[in-house]
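RECORD TYPE: inverse folding
INPUT: structure tokens
STRUCTURE:
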């Protein structure tokens, strides 16, 4: 009996120890950034960044543009990157963040999905330690989810050939903002064999002239030809940076045209989607007007490019920062 009691006590103590190990300690930094102590991980405080009130103006603006479309409008999809900007991070939490639930209830889209996880360990598997973007695992999971959502289970997805580990330590956006190089994380990417063949253009005029623009330096990273520095933005350098308006063409599926409304979380995904679309029209509401010198018109863009699907792709900041579109 004494031996049994000792064993039960040991289990209780071990369980208590395991729970204690899961506890997270947050230390407030500048702005909305938090340091998870003992983890060398920086996140944002979702309670400060995201709220229904902050998203309402842009959501209402998009809804007005969607509601003005004709009855035969293309289907409209949302895929939300559940960064710490929308998910209050804890050892365990609900899979659906408050930000996602608000968009699902209020945005006039037809189909909704998001990057799913419900534990701190799963969050760490999908996101960089010091950057708000998803890492190679998170962006690839999003790519697979999006292909299934847009094109169905029968559509074949790209399969990585290997994980490629770069020499560089990646101090990301939070570390840069704080000038706090706490990362010990090497920059890792998936290598695809081959990469999708696509061409990128910064305007319709350039596309008609065949004047291509370089987008992403993925192959440079595979070769080790990398511009380095303590705060080098490897996410943007490797996958492609932000631009208010881009056109991606492919020789595959020329009958498919996707309008992708996104922010920087889409950078690691949209080049993979060229495997499935003959044309991707990319719009970033934060800088479209500055780039094109005109307001973004949802109906005008759909009509101009004969769009047959519309995808919103980004984190909650896609619905907090940017210009309200025209109908």
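DESIGNED SEQUENCE:
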């Amino acid at each position: 009996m004494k031996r049994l009691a000792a064993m039960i006590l040991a289990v209780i103590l071990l369980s208590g120890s395991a729970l204690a190990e899961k506890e997270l300690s947050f230390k407030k930094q500048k702005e909305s950034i938090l340091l998870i102590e003992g983890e060398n991980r920086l996140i944002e405080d979702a309670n400060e960044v995201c709220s229904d009130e902050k998203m309402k103006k842009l959501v209402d603006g998009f809804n007005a543009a969607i509601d003005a479309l004709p009855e035969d409008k293309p289907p409209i999809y949302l895929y939300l990157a559940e960064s710490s900007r929308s998910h209050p991070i804890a050892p365990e939490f609900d899979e659906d963040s408050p930000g996602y639930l608000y968009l699902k209830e209020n945005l006039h889209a037809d189909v909704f999905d998001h990057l799913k996880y419900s534990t701190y360990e799963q969050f760490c598997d999908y996101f960089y330690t010091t950057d708000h973007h998803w890492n190679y695992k998170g962006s690839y999971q999003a790519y697979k989810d999006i292909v299934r959502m847009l094109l169905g289970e029968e559509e074949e997805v790209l399969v990585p050939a290997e994980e490629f580990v770069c020499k560089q330590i990646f101090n990301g956006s939070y570390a840069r903002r704080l000038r706090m190089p706490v990362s010990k994380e090497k920059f890792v990417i998936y290598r695809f064999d081959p990469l999708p063949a696509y061409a990128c253009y910064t305007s319709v005029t350039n596309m008609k002239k065949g004047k291509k623009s370089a987008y992403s330096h993925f192959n440079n990273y595979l070769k080790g030809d990398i511009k380095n520095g303590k705060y080098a933005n490897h996410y943007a350098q490797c996958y492609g940076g932000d631009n208010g308006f881009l056109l991606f063409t492919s020789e595959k599926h020329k009958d498919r045209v996707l309008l992708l409304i996104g922010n920087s979380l889409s950078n690691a995904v949209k080049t993979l989607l060229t495997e499935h679309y003959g044309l991707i029209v990319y719009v970033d509401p934060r800088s479209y007007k500055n780039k094109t010198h005109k307001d973004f018109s949802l109906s005008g863009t759909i009509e101009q490019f004969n769009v047959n699907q519309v995808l919103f792709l980004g984190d909650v900041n896609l619905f907090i920062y940017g210009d309200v579109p025209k109908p």
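NOTES: Residues 1-20 have pLDDT under 50 and may be disordered.
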